[in-house]
Amino acid sequence: MTTSVRSIEPADIPAVVAMVHELAVYERTPEQCHLTDQQLSAALFGPTAALFGHVAEPKGGQLDGQLGGFALWFLNFSTWRGAHGIYLEDLYVRPQARGAGAGRALLAALADICLERGYQRLEWWVLDWNEPAQAFYRTVGAEPMNEWTVWRLTGDALGRLAGSRT
Q: What is the pLDDT of residues 143-162, one digit of tens each?
């Protein structure tokens, strides 16, 4: 099986949303995933689009003619380096396409974009328990950034902080 990678097109939206929900099941949080076709379409193609995406198309095998995976990403900025980078929000490869190079092809496409545009970093998060993903990322030369802890502000706490400006 070979895999080609291309930018997401509007016709891909339903398949990508379905894969996002598959990813949520894999990550053991399906109840937290509420993404709709309309939301993803607006994020990728709307007037204030700030999200980018690529899909992997396997040729041959079980998924011939279907999407085998996706990468959704956006730009970040490093004040230390003085340059943009890519933050990979989600990378997912369907089980039937794993081991055939789809994940590597998606990451390579993003690495190409980084080099073409002068971006300095390609970064993402990985769940602590997801050892298969961690092992794969090590094969492409990625390293964990263990000295950093992720912090998040959502829901009521976000609303309280937003309303606290004087």
A: 999 998 889 999 999 999 99
Active site residues: 137
CA gyration radius, the chain: 17
Please tell me what DSSP assigns to residue 157. Answer: H
Which amino acid, one-letter code, is at 53?
G
Residue 1 has pLDDT above 70, yes or no: no
CA 105/CA 102 separation, integer angstroms: 5
- Helix extents (H) in 10-165: 13-26, 37-45, 102-117, 131-139, 155-162
> Which domains, from first to last, does the chain contain?
2-162 (3.40.630.30)
Query: In the structure encoding, which two tokens stand for residue 74, read together?
Result: 């956006």
